[in-house]
Every structure is written in structure tokens, then in C-alpha cells.
Amino acid sequence: MPIKPHLSKQTRGAALLFAVFTLIVLSAVGATVSNIISTPHIEQVLSTPARQAFYAAEAGIRIAVAEYNNAAVTEDKSAILSAVSGKTFNLTGDSSQQFELNVYSYGFKVSSHDAGTHTIVAKAIGNIPLQNLEDPSSSTISFPAGSMISVQDEVGNDIPVVLSSAGTISTGAGGVQYVTFTYTPPTGSLPIDASVDLDFVGIANQSGSGVSGNADSVSGLPSSMSNFPARNGRIAIYGEDKTYTYRTLTVESNGSVSLSGLEPESGSFALADFQSETLILRKTFGFQSIGRVTTGGTTATKILAYYDSPVEDAVAIDPDADAAGPTILMYDVSDFNAADLTDSDGDNVVAIQAYTASQGNHTYYAAIHSLCENPSVNTACQHTLRLGRESDFSDRWKTDTRLSYDVQVKLSTAWKLPYGMNGVLVRYHQSGGNTNFYGFSFMKFIDPTETTLPTGVVGDHIPNELKPPGKGSTISSWQVAPEYEGNSMPLNITENDKVLLVFWRQAGSRREWLAYKDITDDRAAYPKQWSGDGRIISDNTTLLVRVEEQFVQGKKVNRIKVFYGDASYQVPNILARTPDALPYNIIAGNGERGRARYQTEWDGTRTHAFPGWPPYTIGDWAITDDFFSLIQSAPTYRVDGALRPCAWDAVNSAAINSAALATADIRILSDGATIRSQEFLTPNSATWPASAANWPGNRPEIAFHAAGRMITYSYERRGWRWRQYADLYNYGATLDDLTYRFLFYN
Prior knowledge:
This protein is mainly beta. It contains 6 helices and 43 strands. Strands 18, 19, 20, 23, 25, 32, 33, 34, 38, 39 and 43 form an 11-stranded antiparallel β-sheet that branches. Strand 26 (420-431) and strand 27 form a beta hairpin. The chain is elongated and about 95 Å long. The relative contact order is 0.12.
């Protein structure tokens, strides 16, 4: 790792450092600090103009590096550097002692991307680097045609490309420098198209077979690598999970480049890493400090340059540890918000009750029975069950004002329920009287354009805004009750009806669906356990939502992934399940391999620990973890021998790109799995350290919901009369095995 200067090593430099640190803290760029340091102290420090200039320059280097590396993760580090770059700091009232700071970035933030013309405009953080930072008159580094850059998307993929023409440098408002790159479109698994969410541009180079060297240094690298920093760089080997740091870069007399002081950050040195490989420079900053001291009309100047390649914020995206969170067995309703347990008339709509099913005894589960006072009116009937454990979340959040967690629950719908939705709500909070959250729901519904409903038949009681057009169910036949009872109920629902997993959003009274996946034939979510079962989802369909809060290029963002799985094992005509190392190879049948059975908490025969969790990355997946499917673009799974994609089948671009959601910046990233947004975030505490008292009130974070025809009237004949009664238990929705855990980061 790069060597960082110690602030206490030199008394004289430290004295000036204190003055400059005070300057930055007070945001007094360009002001004087003669009133902070006494004149006798200054006289002790300043012996000769040349030495004075050296110390002034040294103080500038130290403060720039220290401020960047010591900034809290919640700060926009690039903004710190941009704020001081190009500024002059006066150390005396007459400006006779000063230093000028200039920051140069070896790597650029993507400002725009035109996939049609293969053009990327990227912004420097500070300035485009000079060939020699100790010579302000030297030219900037160049990006000739045929040279390489590596574009990084927001999920960390490196995409090396060759420039089809020379990169051009321009200056925008406020003196901001930009580079325009025109590239040759790459081939392979990571093309750069309009759907790729580009984030950062790094400098890259292709090495050759003529490189020689050992564990300390290598030589014979191409001359184009002279645009890498002279010292303290970090180089990633493309396609390998390996990074090296180097101490010094030297341009030899023949133009080739040598690196010395090499040190692998993991593993051991291998010369092959530098032979015929693509070498990608990680984010590196050059700090130039020009110290000037004027005495008797003569100015002494000293220029110092320092290079630092800090570990990027993005490497802390994936958690490296986790803490087992609570498993709520729902012995009673105390884990939930009491106000959610009854409807407006005070009737209980949530019950905790044991029941026995063919696949086992459910000792504790929550059942939502009824949502509508008048089921004959087709109004949206919804119920939300908020988790009443705010202190768990506030305690975790206060450590660094980030909150990341996994939440999973087993969902089911009663076997007669023809239409409905149920699922998990995350980032649940209230703001200005509005209720905001993201929802992930299993859903089966009647399309709003349905015209075949018999007279007097009501719909599904699901909000129309959440229904992807054209994916609703088709009515097959209905049982119409005696006219004087004034109601109807579905008799038979075709098995060709669609069942969707829908990603949706609510902000205040505004709701919209954002993406969906068709899981109609997906037995990892929708197995029929017996001939009359499986109207919407089965008894043991697990829904897991991974919600991560991270800082990417100084911006706080949500990143959300969706997993689902099935724990049932009494599935007719399905072979015994044999797990596969692929988390999306779902179906066990017709001789195909399939999902491991995720056993429930109440299953005394289970052979694995409860609960089970998916690994953090696909690369960590193993047979023993093969319980869940992750919605992502690359893989496919099989249904009766036919391949199907395991991706969102459609994205509601009109809603996502609408003016109403412009500030949300909701995107599905290039892995096809990760949903990114810049709304519904937890707050950055106004005080530090954050405390539980800073946690907003009425923010439960996690909730569960159900909607639909959750109550249907049935009829029985009593003599010559019909008796109407509410069939609650056969038309409800339940949740079981609720558990969550918090994710920790570096």
C-alpha cells in the first residue's frame, strides 16, 4: 500500500499543517492565519527562504492527503479535493508565505455516454495529470488512438476498450476539465450499450510477452504506460481478482517502462501477471503543492508532488461479515405495530394461530384474514403489517449512518384465494405525512381492461397501478350465488393464468409497478403441492430481499437484490431434488438437476441450520447454498427441458424515466439483478457520532402486506333458505419463518 506521511514527524511542517488544517475546517480558502500563529513561532520555523518554501509546500501535500484519507465514508471525498484544487493558501497577512494546491486525477468520472456514437465524456477530479507534476510547464498526459481505457460500471465490472481516435481535453464551466473518449465497441460478455450504467474511466494498457523481472520490479512494459503515475500506483490485472501496488515508475532510455517496489495486495507475485495482460490503473491522485516565500522582493519557490492510490469506496460495497439477526417465530403479535392488527372497525385482521398442513405442523404463523368490509365493491383492499422493532434498526444505523440488511419470509395464500398479492416492503418510512417504500410481491390479478366479467361480479381488489398491462388473468367460469344474496365468486380459474413477482413503489398516494418477472411455471416459487393447491403461491415460497446502502463516488445509494426459493417437498411427479452449484438451475424433473429443498424452521428433520441465506456474490455459490434463485440477466433455467431466462421480464421505463421519479434515479444495473436508487435512503446524521435519537420516528424499515379478494362469501343451504357466511381461512394469506439480519462492511 502507498506510504502515507505522518503528521507528527517534522515539527516545522506540522506547525504549518496546523495552520492549513484550521484554514480548511473554517472553509477560509484564500484567507490569512497570521492571527493564529504567533510571530515568534513563525520566526523559529522560517530560517531561510528556500527552506521556508519547502515547508510550505510540504504542509500543502500533507493536508491534502490527510484530509482525503481521513475523511469519513459518509463524505464526498472527490468534492473535498475539487474544493481545494487550484486554491492558494496564505500563511501570513501580507501573503509573503503561501502554498498553492493542485489536484490531478488518474481516472475520470463519467458525465455522459452515447452508445450510438461510442463516445464517453468523463470529468477529471481536479485536473488532467501533467507528464511531470514537478514541472508545471509540462504537457498533460495523452490518450492517442489505439491506446486503452477501462470503463467501470456501478457493479464493479471492468470493460477495457481501445480508443478509435485520440482523446480530446476540454474545459467547462468553473474550469472543470473533461476528456472525450471515442472507443471501438468491445465484443464478449460485457458490451457497452445504452443499458450499461457507466461510472468511472480508468487508464489501461496491454502488456506484451517481452516483460521481464522479479518480485521487486519488472521492465519492458510498453511506453504508453508512461501515462501512469510516477509513484504509488495500484494496478489491477483484468480478469483476475488481483491488484498490485508499485513504488516507482521509470521511463527507460529506450522508451519502455519499468516498475519497482511491486507488492501484490493478495497472493504472491507472478511475472505472468504482467505479460500479455491488460493492466488497469485504479483510481490514483497526484497532489502538487507549490510553496512560495517572498523576502526582500525575492521569491523562493519549491514544488513537491505526491501520489496516492487510496482504496476506492467501491471495494467496500460487498459486506465481509454479517450478524445473525432476529428470527421472529410469531408467538404473538408483539413484534408488529399494534395499530396494524385491526381494521377501521376494530376487527382483527391478523391472527397468530397454529395449524396442521400435509407437509408439517406450522406452530406459529401470522394469518391475514380479511381486508374488505364490503367485498362486493371492487375497491382496493390492502393491509400492511409493519415491523415494530425500530430500535434494532436505529442501533445498527448509528454506527456509520448506513443500514443494510437481508429480510426473508415464507409466504402463502389459502388454497381458494383466486386473486391477490402479498410480499415484503422495504425502506418503509413516512416523510411529510407520506408513506414511502419499495414493494416486492407475488401477484395474480384481473387485468383492468377485462371485459368478460359477468354482470355483478367484482374484481380482484388489487390497485390497478400495480398491474403490468396485459398480464392479468382470464376469467374462465363463475359461480353466481342466488340473486337476492347479491354476490358472486369464482368457480374455476384456468391454470394458464399468469403469476408474477412484481417490483413496485409507493410515494405518498402515488403507486406504480416498476418491473416484473413471470413465475407462472417456476416451481421454485409456484409448485402445486396437491391438485387443488397453487392458486397464487404455495405454502412455503420464500421471498428474500437484500437491501444495501452504500457510498459510490461520494453518493449514498440503495442497492437491492431479490431472491426467491421453495421449501416444499410434496410435489407430485417431481423427482427428488438434487442441488446444483448454479443458483438458477431450478427445476428437478425430466432428469434435470434442481434446487435443494430449503427446509422450514419447524421441520424437525432438517439437516442444515435455519435460516439459510444466499451468498453475497454468485462466485461464492455452492451446492450447499443452492436454495435461492437470484433475478439476474445472465443465467437461464429449465422448465420441461426448455430454457428460460432468470431475469426481470419487463421494466416500466415510462414510470422510471418520468419526471415524477427523476430524482429517484432508479436503475437496474448491468448485472441484471441489482436495483439501484437514490431515494428512500436513511438520513445522514446531522451530528457525529450518530445516535439512536437521530433515527427518524415512524420508520419501521420493514413491513409485510397483502391485498386482493381476501374475504369471499360462501353459501350453504339451510332448508329452503341460503345462508351467507365469510369464508376467511380459505381465502387468506399467511407469513411464516420471518427473519432478518444486518450486513456489515469494511
